[in-house]
Amino acid sequence: MARGLFDCSGKVTLVTGGNGGIGLGFARGVAKMGGDIAIWARNAEKNAEAAAELKAAGAGRVIAYQVDASSEEAIVAGYEQLLADFGRVDCVFANSGRASRSRSVLTLDAAEWHDLLAVNLHGAFFTLREGAKAMVARAEAGEPGGSLVYCGSLSMVHGIAGINNYAASKGGMGAVIRGMAAELGKYQIRANTIAPGYIKTGIGADQGMSEEMKARMAQVDAHFSAKTPIHRAGTIADFEGIGAYLCSDASSFHSGDTIFIDGASHIHAPYAFN
Fold first, then answer.
1. How does pLDDT run along the chain (274 residues), one tens digit per residue?
2. Which residue, among 56, 11, 57, has the nearest Cα to 37 in the 3D structure?
């Protein structure tokens, strides 16, 4: 079946944290273009639900694994199993991460600093490093190419008070991605960052929420929508297209970039009147 410019058939994409939110949106875009998908996440029930959804969306093969994306040892073992099952990896989306629990630089302690970096920075680096190793081995065997993708944040370009460990992780991996793009281009491997804006990932869904919480979330939605040039919150569906694009050969000359999926909020001045 012809799938057009963003055809992902025959390609294997690994998505960490792929059983929900932005990761699932990215994976769904690949699935709709016929790609094979590996999910790494820790919740077995959510993994099974996501795998069924991706298969129904059109994915060739889907396997969900329980992998701790903060552990170098688990990541290395995870790749061994992935390559044994699929035989290759063509695209890696290092999406796993967590929000900062800090609210001030003055009270950000060592435990919180290091715990967040273990996933958002170190885990993401090891995930992309091991993916790059597999892609380079394939290139040296005569089949170059591959796509490494990191899930960044507007904190890479905006000063946001309090969440210094989160911003450090996102900005640090942004620099790593540019270094990977420079080093790995000779293998036709590209490396890019996606930087989301305000996205409704399902955490704020109405189901099971109190009326008070629904009202608060409506206020949050209205606040961010008013400050975003495209006046709405983002959804996980907004990541389907970029997932298919970055997995497919359509992006084969696009590397070293930070791609904002944010309704243009990163270029919108806070003192703008519209």
1. 457 899 999 999 999 999 999 999 999 999 999 999 999 999 999 999 999 999 999 999 999 999 999 999 999 999 999 999 999 999 999 999 999 999 999 999 999 999 999 999 999 999 999 999 999 999 999 999 999 999 999 999 999 999 999 999 999 999 999 999 999 999 999 999 999 999 998 644 555 678 888 888 889 889 888 889 999 999 999 999 999 999 999 999 999 999 999 999 999 877 766 6
2. 11
The residue whose two tokens read 């059109």 is 58
**Alpha carbon distance 69, 94 (integer Å):** 9
* Distance in Å from the first CA to the final CA of the chain: 45
227 with 136, same domain? no
Report how far residue 217's alpha carbon sits from residue 95's, in angstroms, rounded to the nearest whole number: 24
Same domain, 109 and 185: yes
Helix (H, G, I), strand (E, B) or coil at 64: strand
Residue 157 has which token pair? 């370009």
Q: Kindly state the DSSP code that residue 83 receives in the 8-state scheme.
A: H
**Number of structural domains in the chain:** 2
Same domain as 109, residue 211: no
List the structure tokens of 123.
Answer: 């885990």
User: What is the span of the domain harbouring residue 226?
Assistant: 205-232
Q: pTM of the entire structure?
A: 0.94
Catalytic residues: 166
Q: Are 242 and 178 in contact (CB under 8 A)?
A: no
- Tell me whether residue 271 is in a domain: no
